[in-house]
Amino acid sequence: MGNSNRRSFLRNLAATGAAMGLAPWSVRNMVHAAEDNLEPACQPLSEANHEAFIAPVKGMATMVSTWNHGIEANAAGFLALTQGGTAMDMIEAGARVVEADATGLSVGIGGLPDRDGHVTLDACCMDHTGNAGAVCFVQGVLHPLSLARKVMEDTPHVMLAGAGAEQFAREIGVDRIELLTDVSRRAWETWRQTSNYAPVINIENHDTIGLLALDDEGRIAGGCTTSGLAYKMHGRVGDSPIIGAGLFVDPDIGGATATGLGEAVMKTVGSFLVVELMRQGQSPQQACEEAVHRIMCRMPTQDLQVGYLALSTSAETGGHAIHEGFNYALTNHAGASLIDATFG
Ligand code: SD4
């Protein structure tokens, strides 16, 4: 049975079980029993070979960032580059533009809150040496990616969470700011009237920014910043600040970032997977397809959206999503474009 037939067979089986009024655990057992009788779940799409290094190119600065707001982010990144910045400076400059845009409902100020009305932010970054920093479940901080960079550069740690991250922010002079805007508060109040307090898992409503940049010296860096899943449970942390899930950069190979339902990305350590597949010789595009395929094999009964974006140290790019609708901005010295990712 092909993978997509297998998926729809299992999805139909789960739907039939639910329609028959079976308990969720009983539907799960039925699906697992059916899976056991099918051939192995996840065959790779293509044979891997074993590269260990992708020769970096110089003079080919390239930046890719998820969704429409990637255009502004990349423009800020290239401005930082022309001012003498490194790949990591490009990432931070790009992230800050989107984090400060109160009209965006998924990143920084204006981001939709959790189900209790708190805006909690997640962010991480990795630089061209493979160093990493992250903050998660942080409130009242306008630029979580800059805070993640400070964790990376000025502490012996990789990740600070919640009140500890906020304390660190105050210690380094970052003022507290209200992140819930009138628009996001009204959206939350409307949601509260109709919700059953289950976190929303929607294939449309994702626009975390993930950014990858290669500077003219061949240095690569990445970042990811988000307010996470709208109306999530208080305390929920997604993939975006998790090194290897929402972002991974290997200075010898390239980087990858993810957008969409973080739980699916975390369970498959998606961005690390993309980069490792690139190490084994796959192009960024092939690697993104394989990582999406892995989610679809592992979670065949769930309808969810995940998109991956990748950039190699040789300035090759790729992007792929489960469903139609994921796009990303690609900027290099020749100009900027918005690209619709392949899907399926
Ligand atoms: C999360 N991956 O918190 C994030 C959400 C997202 O575009 O990507 N939105 O699960």
Give a description of the structure.
With 344 residues, the protein is an alpha+beta fold. The chain has one domain (3-243). It is 35% helix and 21% strand. It has ten helices and 13 strands. The strands form two sheets. An eight-stranded mixed β-sheet has the order 4-3-2-6-5-1-11-12. Strands 7-8-9-10-13 form a five-stranded mixed β-sheet. Helix 1 (3-19) runs antiparallel to helix 2 (24-36), helix 3 (70-82) packs across helix 4 and helix 4 (87-99) packs antiparallel against helix 5. It is globular. Bound molecules: N-hydroxy-L-asparagine. Residues 106, 206-208, 226, 228-229, 238-240, 259-262 line the site of N-hydroxy-L-asparagine.
In angstroms, what separates the terminal alpha carbons? 17 Å
The helix count comes to 10
Which band does the percent of strand residues land in? 15-25%
The SSE order reads HHEHHEEHEHHEEEEHHHEEEEE
What number of domains? 1
Ions, cofactors and other bound molecules: N-hydroxy-L-asparagine
| Cα-based radius of gyration, to the nearest Å | 20 Å
Q: What about the largest sheet?
A: 8 strands, mixed
Total E-strand runs? 13
Runs in which pLDDT lies below 50 for 5 or more consecutive residues are: none
Widest beta sheet: strand line-up = 4-3-2-6-5-1-11-12
Which structural class fits the helix and strand makeup?
alpha+beta
Mean pLDDT figure:
89
Query: How would you describe the shape?
Result: globular
Fraction of residues in H or I helices: 25-40%
